[in-house]
Amino acid sequence: MANGSTTADGVTPTPMEREPLVLNKRSYNWITERICGVVEGPQPLLWWVLFLPSVALMGLLLFGLVYLIVTGVGVWGNNHPVGWGWAITNFVFWIGIGHAGTLISAILFLTRQRWRTSINRASEAMTLFAVMCAGIFPGVHVGRFWMVWFLAPVPNANGIWQNFKSALLWDVFAVSTYFTVSVIFWYLGLVPDLATLRDRAKGVIRKFLYGVFALGWRGSNRHWNHYEMAYLLLAALSTPLVLSVHSVVSFDFATSTVPGWHTTIFPPYFVAGAIFGGFAMVLTLMIPARRIYNLYDLITPKHIDNMAKIICFTGSIVGYAYLMELFIAWYGGNKYEMAAFANRAYAGYYPWAYWCMMFCNVVAPQVFWFKWCRYNIVVVMCVCMCVNIGMWFERFVIIVTSIAQDWLPGAWDVYKASWVEKITFAGTFGLFLGLFLLFIRFLPVIAMSEVKGVLPQSDPHYKEPDTDGAKSNA
Amino acid sequence: MIYGYLCEFPSASALYHAAEKVRDAGFRRWDVHTPFPIHGMNEAMGLKRSILPWFVFFGGATGTLTAFGMQYFTQVALYPTIVQAKPTNIFTVPAFFPVMFELTILFAAFASLFGCLALMGLPRLNHPLFTSKNFKKFSDDGFLMSVERRDEKFDREKTRAFLEEIGASNIELIEDAGSA
């Protein structure tokens, strides 16, 4: 470490103060009380104000799905050129949001970004719920829902197996692996915190349930030894996994021959977009949660600043990809490709969607170059909302504009979503938010054991400061 | 029947230095219980590096082979289906890479979860230490140490004196009701 070292000229530079990860020099017990308090105390009114509409939306989702399954896929607005309308748009949108959680928990862990500890738990939970929302759409858009087992590697009645050369089957493996590994990673991280809840539980039911799920955790260092290794390995496994999932999702498009889909830039472009959209959704959820549960000392302005920088960076990659797509369409000299992009930008049915995407994803996040914007909660929330909307439109633009007008003008048709698609999509927000609120209600929203581990006094070589005033404000 | 002693230290740093002393005194069946993993504690306790990576390596290799076997057997050997004019033979294998990759990760992740649980001996919902009220502190802000009676160096009087000497407080004798 450079701290306190002396250069060749005999100069000892003053070490720069790091911004503390937890403000106000909080103690271990304060962290336990504050985070367990969210689970143990009654929920604020706002929790119910959000939860009840979420349940209502979940009902709408259920209705939309049942109506679709009992009637047939004709209740959606899909038509002949546009077989992949809102359903696949929503699928890619949700799966993209599901990328931030594992990015924060795995990639930021491997790169030793210690600020991740305050946000990783909630973003991993968000990942799981987003992937659940995503999983609904490919399942039901096949039409005959009772045939959904065709997705699994099981031969049909004629002994014919799934086509393993198909990107769609790769996608099934990628998404289901991603979900399973995310659950394992999340649960393993939860175990020490579940033990905290177990040790504090008052009621019989709580004692029993937290007790069972905590697996009898004893905080033993002989266990931590294996546990930390498992966590490291899972992080190392999840890192290529998270990059692979959206790459495989992009193969669904890139391996086809449709103009506008058939591009090699798709995998990195989709991954950057997924991280971009995922971080925006993390902030969309964490900024209100931080306010409602008074977590200001744990989720500090520095955390929001860091995430805003990542949004700015990945947003710029996405912007670069948009421009590169346009450039290659022109430079490649393929008239179908050029027509696809002309349709997106001005000539087609949906240029408004393209420009909405451009503004929300490319222009809006550029304000994060300014520190003032990154530290202003209102600006951050507005940009995140733009990104949430923009990322949905990105998928809509890619999917719908490309197939509504492909090779043959005679086959072109405008696609409009029906009311059933709209309520189903709205319903997934209810499912997402409802599950997230239940998560806040029953599980520790911040990884206590990890946050405790990054406090300065957790270092075994830590020396108590001599000043008497240091502990008085704890 | 006695399980052993449970005692407490005031901070992560105190526990770390106490652990070094217990290690040097030659104890083998003892442990520390902390709210978070203390950096360097494995060395302070004289623990070896976890062997979990081997479990995970073989888990991952099993995944790769499973995916390759499943795809090659069903696509090439059992029922070759020619889709989009793509051949089904040994040269088809690159198309199998995505699923091979995913199953490698999946199996390795399961191996790290179950391997970790097996190495830790969890789930184990009952343990003599849970009878102590003081033990609950470990999951909040306590830095605890336990020394088992089964340790060869354990002596009811001497071990207690030793723990006091290295700065332990709240030294408590834990009963083991289960294995009496």
Describe what this molecule looks like in 3D.
The complex is a heterodimer of chains A (474) and B (180). Chain A has helices at 28-40, 45-71, 86-97, 99-110, 120-141, 167-200, 204-213, 221-254, 266-292, 301-331, 335-347, 351-363, 371-374, 377-404, 419-442, 448-453. Chain A has 474 residues and is mainly alpha-helical. Chain A has one domain. In chain A, helix 2 crosses helix 15, helix 3 (86-97) packs across helix 9 and helix 9 packs antiparallel against helix 14. The radius of gyration of chain A is 24 Å and the shape is globular. Chain A starts with 27 loop residues before the first helix and ends in a 21-residue tail after the last helix. The model of chain A is unreliable at 467-474 (pLDDT under 50). With 180 residues, chain B is α+β, with helices and mostly antiparallel strands. Chain B has 2 domains: 2-48 and 124-175, no CATH class; 52-120, no CATH class. Helix content of chain B is 44%, strand content 14%. In chain B, strands 2-3-1-4 form a 4-stranded antiparallel sheet. The N and C termini of chain B lie close together (5 Å). The mean pLDDT of chain B is 86.
Quick rundown:
The complex is a heterodimer of chains A (474) and B (180). In chain A, 65% of the residues lie in helices and 0% in strands.
Annotate the secondary structure layout.
The complex is a heterodimer of chains A (474) and B (180).
Chain A: H1 28-40, H2 45-71, H3 86-97, H4 99-110, H5 120-141, H6 167-200, H7 204-213, H8 221-254, H9 266-292, H10 301-331, H11 335-347, H12 351-363, H13 371-374, H14 377-404, H15 419-442, H16 448-453
Chain B: E1 2-9, H1 12-24, E2 30-33, H2 41-45, H3 52-78, H4 97-120, E3 143-148, H5 156-165, E4 169-175
Antiparallel strand pairs in B: 1-3, 1-4, 2-3
Helix pairs in contact in B: 3-4
Which labels suit this protein?
heterodimer; A: 474 residues; mainly alpha; B: alpha+beta; 5 helices; 44% helix; elongated
